[in-house]
Amino acid sequence: MSRWDAVPDGKAEDQAQPKRRSRWDDMASQPLSSGISQSVVQSNQTYSGEIGVFATPQATPLFQGKMGAELQTPGPLSPRRAAIEQAARSRWERELDERNRPLTDDEISAMLPESGYKILEVPGDYIPLITPARRLLATPSLSLAGDEFYSLPEEVSGLSTDIPSEVEGITIHPEEQETFKKILTTVDESTLKSEEMKEREFLTLILKVKNGTPQQRKTATRLITEKAKEFGADIILSNLLPMFMLKTLEEQERHLLVKILDRVLLKLDDAVRPYTHKILSVIEPLLIDKDYFARIEGREIIANLSKAVGLQTMIATMRPDIDSPDERIRNTTARAFAVTTVTFGINSMIPFIRAAFATRRSWEARQTAVRIVRHVAEFVGCGVLPYLGDLVKCIQAGVTDEAVQVRRFTALALSELAEACAPYGAHAFKDVALRVLESLQKEKSKTRVAFLKCAGSLVPLFEGKLALSYIKSLSKTLVEEFSSPDDEMRKTVMKVVQQCISSPVESEAILSNQLVPKFFESFWASRVTRDRMSANQLVATTAELAKKVGAPEVVTRLHGFLKEKDISLSMRAAQAILRIVKNNSLELLQNEAAQLVDSLLFAIQSSDNPIAAQSAYAGGDRELQNVFVTCFGAVGQALNVRFEPFITNIVAKIYHRINSKDANIRQQSADLIVALAPVLFACHDEDILNQLYQAMYECLGEEFPEVLGSILGALKSIVNTIGMRKLNPPVSDLLPRLTPILRNRHEKVQENCVDLVGRIAERAAEAVSPREWCRICFELVDIFRTPRRNIRQAAVNAFGFIAKAVDPQEVLSVLLKNLRVQERTNRVCTTIAIAIVADQCQPFVVLPLLMNEYKVPELNVQNGVLKSLSFLFEYIGETAKDYIYSITTLLENALVDRDLVHRQTAAATLKHLALGVFGLGKEDAILHLLNCLWPNIFETSPHVISAVFDAIDGCRVCLGPTRILQYTVQGLFHPARKVRDVYWRIYNMTYIGNQDALVPSYPTLENDGDRTYQRRELELLF
Amino acid sequence: MAKHHVDLMFCRKQPGLQVGKLCDNHEGRCPICDSMTRPTTLAYICDECNFGSRKDKCVVCGANGSCDAYYCKECTLQEKDRDGCPKIINVGQSRTDDHYHKKANG
């Protein structure tokens, strides 16, 4: 049994091996730096006496008896644990069975009329098919409601059911009974000790967090955080940590527990020190979780834990694990160490890493040390630069270590360091670079990959001759490995090729050995493009290659792949061409260009790669979505006027395909128009554009929303290029067709349609009757309800243009009416639209109407008006100076209103107003409003108080810090702390903002005995 | 975003010469106060926040950046543009909660 498997029993271990020394403790001849006392490093049990850098003031606790039982690595299941898991599984199965249960005869006769139906005999040879796969596939039905459908839960073997399964209405699953058993029994609370009471309370709160409703969860989380100190570390952690080890814990539940742990850590601070090891053992696995969010959570917890318990405790706690025989433990420990290193600064950990690497008897410890360096470089990136020399020196001997695992990880760590600091730091790697090349020749398989990666990462660091010779000695191995069957090796080779060719040395050095043809031969193949990671690297390397050897050479090699049957190959070729064309000038000969356009057209039309399969391969990659069309557009733009000869052919194809039966093809053609419209315009083919516009106009009756969205996009792009005047049919015909489309709820349609309408309102509003615009206003107000923000934004902007084009009064009446609706998002959008209208059509049009609306005795409306004013003053800025006096009384009224939200919104308005009129001589009005605002400084609601402080800060800018200081001084030394705290906060804010300007404003104090407070100006000068 | 999610943390290191970027979702916003009005001062970020894979990522959410970030006029007046690198360096509770919620409920 390994050490990790054993239940840690401090007593036994203490007595049996009082002076057990870890192999790691045997230092090599390398001396430790100052401050590390040998005795401390040697004895990991006792920390009394002198405390060195790595000692902890308090010994890491050893688990007594059952204390650590929940934390041990799970071995074979105990009968009890097996029962718990069985319970969870059977609960799940029961639930599924319950949902899929066939109807009983009683239920059927209750549903169907009694006469007219007959119950048939079951055929004798009928055997129902019940396989697990079928069960999983069965549709769950939600018809569980009603008394008839309830069946008593069956007893689970091994678990008693006489315990209640509910506390305060929250269900406890059988597998959680063990954890919550203390609150499951009813006891007379008067007989309990206060500690037991607290534990019961805490368990109830945790149960609410775990299984309660969102509201209960929120309150319980807040209560736990508030009462953390009261509960104490013992109660909280000894109950919370074992829950992480529950086998049946789901990810979301684990996240909730992690959240609790995080907050509790902050509150308990160094009181958690005795639990450091326990916390680490439950949190460390998060660091290698496959979920990114889990890894981030783990890092945050460990960073917070480090801050709470200090560096010494962290080192002392994790040190025994660095030479653990278990690979997983070493891995997580190295990561945890790296997090701690980043938290305390790399400097403070270098001695430890050096010492750990100097361990001679255990390669595990050396490997962990190297891993720590690797992860530190990964976490801090270029922040590693100041310590680069030290870190490289610490681990460079690992390149020739006797243990292969150490060599491999040293190469990886050096590679990570080099990547982190590129293009700086060549001096640090000077010694090790050649040794890496030497080792590269000797190593095999995985280690060889690591060394190749390392050598590649070093290339960008070197310059001039050094780089040249390095690349030369590397390139032979590189070309040799082109034919490697290993996936990992292939990826690394491509990466290294990219690194070599992006180095600014002469091309011959790199491109010798027929690198380019061999590269295309070896890597542009289906086996590479089918794997997503390899394919990404392939495209990146190819694009880099084009920079070195010129775009034409690479593009002519690539366009053949566009005609490949394998969809992954042709799409990646298009992606590579797209990248190359974007970054380089495309100087193709006319026949080469013709070939390229031909291949692209072939790829678009080919029935071998249906569009559905294309989007399936693209997955979430945005660049790959619709890559052929985008690539076509980019090539067209790169060729510019040279694209003209191909236009007739392409447009004919588009006409043909726009009437296709397949919706995907119609959509693709519309997208192609979007991509090509600017090119057609550049080639002076306005007639063709107008024809395409007509074709698109006729397609507006399209029923598939995705296609309709693309068609609207095509219209938008044509309208943008040739302008509104030359359109036929004219804009006045187009807009009435768009009005009903605005009602379409599909996001793509809405976005493009609102955009197009806004564009028309901006450029050719007079072409359409005001009545039509009013109709559109009503439709646009509805669009405020959409969940997509950019659609709402487009709608709000369209309002501004429409208001400018037609009578703003009418638009405003629509908007002001909309302030009365219930939904908050809708109202907020309306207020923004009002502000934009004010910005476009001058505030004097809007303000009287708004102020009139404020008279309506309705909370929503008044708040809406205030919010509009807030946005309005934010938009108009300095123009506010002309309106400030007219608005003062309204704001004054709002600032002294009973309703909190009134005051909050008025404060926000005041902030924008004050910042708008800064330096424009309107200080009298602002000062008056500040007087009304000031009593609000003692508000406790978080939103209100932050609005009030923002407003005061705005006033500080406008009125100068002296005035704010005069208001503040009186409260700074108030006898009540609550008052003092607020005033000091305001003072600090003022001080941060205008430290220097406050000097002349401080009160003059007389000298007091031997204390001198007076500073004469002349003295200050000297 | 940081204005509406108090647990988000700014980097606040000494800014370098790199201009912070914003993604399509946050385009036009001031990184401090979320305002879309009057962008005034270019927002510079520190070297570490523009390093490696973090290069050209949105300062607010870490997605691919597409345009430069500007501080609004009001934040410039209040000198909030001089408080250090405005890159958000943590993920934030609401996003993590949302991620796990989605994962649990499909």
UniProtKB/TrEMBL annotation, chain A:
The keyword Nucleus applies. Residues 30-41 have a biased composition (Polar residues). Pfam families: PPP2R1A-like_HEAT, SF3b1, TPR_DNAAF5. Residues 1-41 are annotated as: Disordered. Belongs to the SF3B1 family. It comes from the Eukaryota. Residues 805-881 form the Phosphatase PP2A regulatory subunit A/Splicing factor 3B subunit 1-like HEAT repeat domain. This is Splicing factor 3B subunit 1. Keywords: mRNA processing, mRNA splicing, Nucleus, Repeat, Spliceosome. It is found in: Nucleus. The keyword Transmembrane helix does not apply. Residues 1-17 have a biased composition (Basic and acidic residues). InterPro entries: ARM-like, ARM-type_fold, PP2A/SF3B1-like_HEAT, SF3b_su1, SF3b_su1-like, TPR_DAAF5. Residues 361-499 form the Dynein axonemal assembly factor 5 TPR repeats domain. Residues 17-156 form the Splicing factor 3B subunit domain.
UniProtKB/TrEMBL annotation, chain B:
It comes from the Eukaryota. It holds the Pfam family PHF5. InterPro entries: PHF5. Belongs to the PHF5 family. This is Pre-mRNA-splicing factor ini1.
